[in-house]
Amino acid sequence: GAVVSQHPSRVICKSGTSVKIECRSLDFQATTMFWYRQFPKQSLMLMATSNEGSKATYEQGVEKDKFLINHASLTLSTLTVTSAHPEDSSFYICSATRQGNQPQHFGDGTRLSIL
Amino acid sequence: AQSVSQHNHHVILSEAASLELGCNYSYGGTVNLFWYVQYPGQHLQLLLKYFSGDPLVKGIKGFEAEFIKSKFSFNLRKPSVQWSDTAEYFCAARGNSGNTPLVFGKGTRLSVIA
């Protein structure tokens, strides 16, 4: 149980394009979803925390207008990278957790490459 | 500020060798601790977690970790590694609530050679 699906797994697009990444909890209701970013050979850095039906809480230094997060249901959160540029190229990972003191379950990640 | 430190960037072991990966945390208040593993090309998987109680925690695949509060440590151990344990290992911490985010260490790459 506790499967998190992230789509797409890989995106290559031109500079200026907006890219949407989906994160779905397949077999549980995720009251909270998290979006992380991982640069090569570095750790996961939290970008934002998303609670269903509420506005996302962004970490310091993360542009909320650049990284739009929507958590419209208990099984789906989306991250949209608007007007992406090469410096946005990275590995984006979502995780989801049930209500209560439960572990996070991670998606497979999305490798975004902006040309 | 909360932080997690993993001391080893890359560890290379022979099969059957014993493993210990260091993890120290800095966190105010009650802390939950985790070890995740990321096999090549796969997503993060939970190896084990500590919330409270017995400080020696047993996880999947023969891994265990010991929470030593006085040392702010949560080291991962395995008595005898296998080639299939080759992966990236991440230590993580968070507050005592499911909707608080994880703070990750930088990860330790484990390479097990035959």
Rg value of chain A: 13 Å
Unreliable spans of chain A are: none
Biggest protein-protein contact in the assembly: A-B, 28 and 22 residues
Overall residue-averaged pLDDT value of chain A? 91
Number of strands of chain A: 11
Annotation, overall tally of beta strands of chain B: 12
Order of helices and strands of chain A: EEEEEEEEEEE
Write out key terms for the chains shown.
heterodimer, A: 115 residues, mainly beta, 7-stranded mixed beta sheet, 4-stranded antiparallel beta sheet, 52% strand, globular, B: 114 residues, 6-stranded mixed beta sheet, 12 strands
Explain the layout of strands and helices.
The complex is a heterodimer of chains A (115) and B (114).
Chain A: E1 4-7, E2 10-13, E3 19-25, E4 32-38, E5 44-51, E6 57-58, E7 67-73, E8 76-81, E9 90-97, E10 105-106, E11 110-114
Parallel strand pairs in A: 2-11
Antiparallel strand pairs in A: 1-3, 3-8, 4-5, 4-9, 5-6, 7-8, 9-10, 9-11
Chain B: E1 3-5, E2 10-14, E3 19-21, E4 24-26, E5 31-38, E6 45-50, E7 56-58, E8 64-68, E9 73-78, E10 87-95, E11 103-104, E12 108-113
Parallel strand pairs in B: 2-12
Antiparallel strand pairs in B: 1-4, 3-9, 5-6, 5-10, 7-8, 8-9, 10-11, 10-12
Task: Give a verbal description of the structure.
The complex is a heterodimer of chains A (115) and B (114). Chain A is built from no helices and 11 strands. The mean pLDDT of chain A is 91. In chain A, the strands form 2 sheets. In chain A, strands 2, 4, 5, 6, 9, 10 and 11 form a 7-stranded mixed sheet that branches. In chain A, strands 1-3-8-7 form a 4-stranded antiparallel sheet, with no helix packed on it. Chain A has strands at residues 4-7, 10-13, 19-25, 32-38, 44-51, 57-58, 67-73, 76-81, 90-97, 105-106, 110-114. Chain A has 115 residues and is mainly beta. Chain A starts with a strand and ends with a strand. By secondary structure, chain B is an all-beta fold. Chain B has strands at 3-5, 10-14, 19-21, 24-26, 31-38, 45-50, 56-58, 64-68, 73-78, 87-95, 103-104, 108-113. In chain B, a hairpin with a 6-residue loop joins β5 and β6. Chain B is globular and about 45 Å long. The termini of chain B are far apart.
